[in-house]
Specification:
- By secondary structure, this protein is of the alpha/beta class.
- The chain contains 13 helices and eight strands.
- The protein has helices at residues 2-9, 13-21, 25-32, 38-50, 67-87, 109-126, 141-154, 169-176, 201-217, 229-241, 259-267, 283-292, 294-305, and strands at residues 54-59, 93-97, 131-133, 159-163, 182-186, 221-225, 250-254, 271-278.
- Strand 2, helix 6 (109-126) and strand 3 form a beta-alpha-beta unit.
Length: 308
């Protein structure tokens, strides 16, 4: 399987330098990354809003090694909130954050990440939007869920992400499917050992459906992160059986992937949110997109061979 190999490469400085220098890289990166600055991503948000879509914005970058870098990541999100406020786009755009960017892996990282993310969540609430805490590798999740629980005391709309390939997630879903919760379910995009995660696609898909059923039957707000047509159809059927209206759950897909499907679901009356990443530190995010789907890797390979 190529996925684990690509995920390993996402941690390699040598591969980072090689991929960054490859002639066709920019063409492919531009497919998945909306821009490098807030100014460049604003037209993307406006275009999505004009099509009846919503967005969740991710300032990419995970290799944080100092408290100063973590503070800079916080400030990048605060700048984003200010721009959304100025443009009146808060109602159409929320934010997704990785706590690794806020210093979670540093000494005292749990407290540091909470201190850095809280002002972002507070600023988002002030303009009528919210923040979702992205899930990262399994060693970070206890901290992420604890921070999520703490933030929800003052900002109950704060969302979190759960990953279907982890054995623990079915129990996490039962705990999180309460009134007022916002939970995004994804398959998972990190290299995890067989001791904690399903390894086969079939097992992961079955777990995804079981977890989604729990969320749909719960009292919270499910956010279905998937591009898989079969899982999307299953989600629609589970929502119908649970008696949910179309605005009582939403679909989420990545910027640059299955854009026609974004429009189709929105036209059917579903809430459709586009996960939109931007920033200069794109490498880790980009490599996980390649790992998730072989077609993305083939597209990248052709671009290199044709030199963009």
């Amino acid at each position: 399987m190529l996925g684990p190999v690509i995920l390993a490469a996402s941690r390699s400085d040598k591969m980072r330098r090689f991929i960054s220098a490859a002639p066709g890289t920019k063409q492919v990166v531009d497919r998945f990354i909306a821009g490098e600055t807030v100014g460049q991503v604003v037209p993307v948000i406006e275009d999505a809003a004009g099509k009846g879509l919503e967005v969740t914005l991710d300032v990419v970058g995970e290799d944080i090694t100092t408290p100063e870098q973590a503070a800079a990541a916080r400030d990048a999100y605060l700048e984003l909130v200010e721009r959304l406020k100025d443009l009146g786009l808060g109602a159409r755009a929320e934010m997704s954050v990785k706590l690794s960017m806020f210093g979670q892996s540093l000494d005292g990282g749990h407290e540091l990440a909470l201190a850095n993310v809280r002002p972002v969540v507070e600023a988002a609430a002030a303009i009528g939007t919210t923040v979702t805490l992205d899930a990262e590798d399994h060693t970070t999740l206890d901290s992420m869920f604890a921070i999520h629980e703490e933030l929800r005391k003052d900002f109950p709309q704060t969302g979190c992400v759960i990953q279907a390939y982890l054995f623990r997630t079915e129990e996490d879903a039962r705990r999180l499917a309460d009134a007022g919760s916002r939970v995004r379910i994804v398959k998972g995009a990190y290299k995890e050992p067989a001791s904690v995660a399903y390894q086969g696609k079939g097992e992961i898909d079955k777990a995804y459906v079981r977890i989604l059923k729990t969320l749909m039957q719960g009292e919270g707000y499910p956010m279905i992160g998937s591009h898989d047509p079969r899982l999307i159809a299953i989600a629609q059927e589970l929502g119908r059986k649970a008696g949910r209206k179309l605005d009582e759950y939403e679909f989420q897909m990545l910027y640059g992937i299955r854009s026609d499907e974004h429009i189709r679901l929105a036209a059917e009356g579903h809430r459709m949110r586009v996960y939109t990443a931007y920033g200069t530190d794109w490498y880790g995010y980009f490599m996980r997109r390649l790992a998730e789907k072989p077609a993305n890797l083939l597209f990248f390979g052709r671009s290199i061979l044709t030199k963009g």
